[in-house]
Amino acid sequence: MSEDSRQAQRFAVQLPVLFGDQAPSEHGTILNISMEGCALTAERIPALHAHVSIHIDLPDGTEPVDIGLAGVRWVTDYRCGLEFIRISGESLARLHAFVTLLKNTPY
Predict the structure, then answer these.
(1) 95 membership: H or E segment, kind and range
(2) How far apart are CA 11 and CA 51, in angstroms?
(3) What 3 state SS string does 15-73 have?
(4) In whole angstroms, what is the distance from residue 95 CA to residue 89 CA?
């Protein structure tokens, strides 16, 4: 997927994340995020086309966002791009509130 074909605006962040194929167990950092996906960096990243679940720690003590299913869409060295596929209504609401906050925060 090229950057030009993205539907959702992405925001640069540095958020701790746990991810894994069975259960979130690998540590990483989210580098950018949108309502549709994110890019993350980690020592061990999942393979292209793999599916993972992810647990995103939001700042300021906000409840974390749990993505039940995300697909790996691209991989380079220690980075990968994930598309959010399945997310609960509660986590979706928290993600939406966080992305809206980022959108409304001046640079």
Answers:
(1) helix 89-104
(2) 23
(3) EEEEEECCCCCEEEEEEEECCCEEEEECCCCCCCCCEEEEEECCCCCCCCEEEEEEEEE
(4) 10
Distance CA 53, CA 67 (A): 6
**Average pLDDT over every residue of 62-86:** 96
pLDDT digits (tens, 9 = 90+) for 27-69: 999 999 999 999 999 999 999 999 999 999 998 788 999 999 9
Contacts of 64 (CB under 8 A, 6+ apart): 55, 56, 57, 58, 94
Residues in Cβ contact with 27 at an 8 Å cutoff, skipping those fewer than 6 apart: 16, 17, 18, 42
Instruction: Write down the pTM of the prediction.
Output: 0.88
